[in-house]
């Protein structure tokens, strides 16, 4: 059976964070994914190169050989799961987020899987950075991984905060309807793990709250193989608390076109577990 995530793009900067992201990407083989595209973007500044009296072609050739060797090594991680792998190296001086989205469209991928941090990960570079921009610009779902950064013997490393990425997935809803694409994703995730559905009612009068709870209860009852809950309070706080309560491994939240919205943006900032952004 063909997966809704048949072809996946994973950008990498060869950091420990992106390597862990690639390891997570192997899980999609369990859903029927067939191909992973590994992308490395080599950034350069023409002005800096001119000061160093080095041509663009000379610099690109220098970094290309090293990048292709590292891409080949990372491809082996994915091939162990029986997935087909393609590697792409791109040198550019433009915005990497725009290049990632452009390549995702050219390749016809179904998902972009990207780490929330890269070589600048110790600085917690996410919001305003590449990952957030990709999530905002992309027309396909974007899954942003998050890992615990720890120190041992003076070395920094990433630790998984979950056993399996797709083990316990929490879907958030802000209205009682679901797109055909989102329903397919929900159904696929329910085949390999536990699925939770949640809607948060913001502060209103008692009669409106009761009506909304009944409306969402009827909606959620129509979705098989999932536990659901309607909560009352601040959406971001309640979603994060419920994710901790259910020991969720992934939060799925929607966006409108190229706008993340307040809830999705805040979840990206504050969640300690991975976030998947879907177009509503």
TrEMBL record:
Domain UspA: 5-146, 168-278
One Pfam assignment: Usp
PANTHER family: STRESS RESPONSE PROTEIN NHAX, UNIVERSAL STRESS PROTEIN MJ0577
Family of the protein in this entry: Belongs to the universal stress protein A family.
Entry protein name: Universal stress protein UspA-related nucleotide-binding protein
Organism of derivation: Archaeoglobus sulfaticallidus PM70-1
Top-level taxonomy: Archaea, Methanobacteriati, Methanobacteriota, Archaeoglobi, Archaeoglobales
């Amino acid at each position: 059976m063909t997966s809704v995530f048949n072809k996946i793009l994973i950008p990498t900067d060869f950091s420990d964070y992106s390597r862990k992201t690639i390891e997570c990407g192997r899980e999609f083989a369990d859903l029927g994914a067939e191909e992973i595209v590994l992308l490395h973007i080599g950034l350069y500044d023409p002005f800096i190169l001119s000061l160093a009296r080095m041509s663009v072609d000379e610099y690109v050739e220098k970094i290309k050989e090293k990048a292709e060797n590292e891409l080949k090594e990372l491809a082996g991680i994915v091939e162990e799961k029986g997935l087909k792998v393609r590697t792409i190296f791109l040198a550019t001086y433009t915005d990497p987020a725009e290049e990632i989205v452009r390549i995702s469209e050219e390749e016809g991928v179904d998902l972009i899987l990207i780490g929330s941090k890269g070589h600048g990960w110790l600085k917690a570079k996410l919001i305003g950075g590449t990952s957030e921009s990709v999530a905002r610009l992309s027309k396909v779902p974007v899954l942003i991984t998050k890992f615990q950064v720890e120190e041992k013997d003076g070395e920094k490393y990433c630790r998984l905060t979950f056993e399996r990425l797709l083990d316990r997935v929490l879907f958030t809803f802000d209205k009682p309807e679901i797109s055909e694409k989102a329903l397919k994703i929900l159904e696929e995730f329910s085949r390999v793990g536990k699925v939770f559905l949640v809607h948060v009612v913001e502060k209103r009068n008692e009669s409106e709250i009761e009506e909304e709870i009944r409306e969402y209860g009827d909606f959620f009852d129509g979705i098989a193989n999932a536990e659901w809950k309607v909560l009352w309070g601040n959406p971001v706080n309640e979603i994060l608390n419920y994710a901790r309560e259910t020991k969720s491994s992934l939060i799925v939240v929607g966006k409108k076109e190229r706008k993340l919205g307040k809830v999705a943006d805040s979840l990206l900032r504050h969640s300690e577990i991975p976030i998947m952004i879907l177009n509503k």
